[in-house]
C-alpha cells in the first residue's frame, strides 16, 4: 500500500467543531477489515510559562457496535443537563457579568488567583538540611 492509499483510508469523512480554545474532530476511519469506526478528538490550546502555544489532545475511539448505546446515553445525559440548567451557559469564562449576577443572587464568588511559582516556592538553604 502506498502513502496515497493510506491517506485516503484515513480521511474517509471528517467534521470539525470549533468551540473557543477547544476544537473537536469527528473522523470516520477504517479498520484493517475495511469496516468503519469513529474517532472523536478534543484538541485544546494551552500556553507554557514562556507564552508558547501548544495543544493537548484527547481521543475516543467509538466502534459501530457501541453507537446505539453511546447515542442513547449521550442524549439522556445532555437532555438531563439542558432540562436541569437550561441552555444558558453559567460560567465566568463565558459570561463577563458572572460575578455580578452571582453576587446579586447572594452567592459569594471566589476569584481564581494565578499561580506564581516564584511566590509559592519555599527558599531552603542547604545549611538547613
Helix content: 25-40%
CATH topology: Nuclear Transport Factor 2, Chain: A
Q: How many domains is the backbone divided into?
A: 1
Number of helices: 4
Approximate strand percentage: 25-35%
Global outline: flat
Which segments are poorly predicted (pLDDT under 50) over 5 or more consecutive residues?
112-129
| Measured distance between first and last alpha carbons | 62 Å
The main sheet comes to:
4 strands, antiparallel
Find the structural class using helix and strand composition.
Answer: alpha+beta
Give the oligomeric state of the chains in this entry, treating copies of one chain as homo and distinct chains as hetero: single chain
Quickly give the CATH architecture.
Roll
CATH first level: Alpha Beta
Number of strands: 4
Mean pLDDT: 78
Q: Give the C-alpha Rg.
A: 23 Å
- The arrangement of helices and strands along the chain is HEEEEHHH
Query: Strand order, biggest sheet?
Result: 1-2-3-4
Task: Give a structural overview.
This protein has 129 residues and is α+β, with helices and mostly antiparallel strands. A four-stranded antiparallel beta sheet has the order 1-2-3-4. It is built from four helices and four strands; from the N terminus they run αββββααα. It has a single domain, classed as Nuclear Transport Factor 2, Chain: A, CATH 3.10.450. It starts with a helix and ends in a 9-residue tail after the last helix. The longest helix has 22 residues. Helices cover 32% and strands 30% of the residues.
List keywords for this structure.
129 residues, disordered C terminus, 32% helix, Nuclear Transport Factor 2, Chain: A, alpha+beta, 30% strand, single chain
Amino acid at each position: 500500500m502506498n502513502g496515497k492509499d493510506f491517506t485516503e483510508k484515513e480521511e474517509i469523512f471528517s467534521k470539525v467543531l470549533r468551540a473557543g480554545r477547544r476544537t473537536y474532530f469527528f473522523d470516520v476511519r477504517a479498520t484493517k477489515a475495511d469496516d468503519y469506526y469513529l474517532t472523536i478528538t478534543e484538541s485544546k490550546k494551552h500556553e507554557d510559562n514562556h507564552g508558547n502555544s501548544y495543544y493537548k489532545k484527547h481521543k475516543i475511539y467509538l466502534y459501530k457496535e457501541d453507537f446505539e448505546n453511546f447515542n442513547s446515553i449521550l442524549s439522556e445525559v445532555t437532555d438531563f443537563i439542558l432540562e436541569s440548567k437550561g441552555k444558558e451557559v453559567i460560567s465566568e469564562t463565558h459570561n463577563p457579568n458572572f460575578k455580578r449576577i452571582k453576587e446579586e443572587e447572594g452567592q459569594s464568588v471566589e476569584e481564581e488567583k494565578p499561580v506564581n511559582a516564584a511566590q509559592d516556592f519555599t527558599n531552603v538553604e542547604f545549611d538547613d538540611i
